[in-house]
Amino acid sequence: MAEERIVRVGTRKSQLALIQTTSVIQKLKALDPSLKFETVPMTTTGDRILDSALSKIGEKSLFTKELETALLKKQVDFVVHSLKDLPTILPDGLVIGCVCKRDSPYDAVVMHPKYRGKTLKDLPPGSVIGTSSLRRAAQIQRMYPQFKIESIRGNLNTRFQKLAEQDTYDAIILAVAGLERMGWHEWISQVLTPEECMYAVSQGAMAVECRADDDAALSCPPACSFGMVHEGGCSVPVSVFTEVSKSQLTLRGGVFSIDGTQAVQHTVVASLDDQDFLKSEHSSFVGIYCQTPANRHQYSSAWAAGERLADDMIALGAEAILAAAKAETKKELIKEHEKKGQHNMTNQAGSSVLAD
Question: What are the structural domains, with CATH classification, of the chain?
Fold first, then answer.
């Protein structure tokens, strides 16, 4: 009798990550009930370092590196990510095998219990808004200059605890998709419109990352990947808004200074003649073709729209704003490292005195 094969699935340890991973496993089981799975939870750099804003940690792939290392070492068979956490370029030998149908990409406001049911415009001047994302911080500061933006770190459970138990934040900004997956929809006081805060590229989607040389376990119907030249993520104030209506794609991008005072926003509209893309809208699984330029011709109109948007925004000055934002972030990062270095020296000196 052949030994039963167990598919090992890498994931972060947070409750939300485990919920997302379970959701993907259930979809795979529905396609092939004979498959058996084992979840392998791991702690990433972003999970360990909670006393600094994401932009001040100075590492790339904050929530993916450890998972990808385990994948390359064949300690797991595939890993599940929030797609927005993945870097623009994946490590050699890894690809995105498929992406689940996207949930809501929007951001939400969760109020301190004393303000529950209110919206941002109802808060008094000087209110403190918590977020770990430069993208959200820049746009909220731009829209509501009367507020103070403070970093808040940790998984969703930790952030909710900090909001409720610490008298620090009047509201925090989180992804709608994460709140809904946790079953916490009732805590959403306000869903932010694109005019208030455009979302991150790929926000609301879950991705399955696997080894490029593995045989595919299942065949996923194709869809379109929208590519932007700008490097996104929580550590860079880059945002997007997309809308598909019939056979037309509207793609709007935004690049902001860290304080929100400068911005380049631009919109492109393209006709979609990719029938496979339009059909895939109704599928529970859709494929995404990252790092496979040969496949892009299948979705040329959408790819061209994303590239045109990036080119237009660069021409309008987005690159200069982004460069300044990265320089400011780097300066803050150096200060953070120097501060921690002095703190460590003080602790070492204190330990030495106690030892004496």
Answer: 6-104+201-319 (3.40.190.10), 107-198 (3.40.190.10)
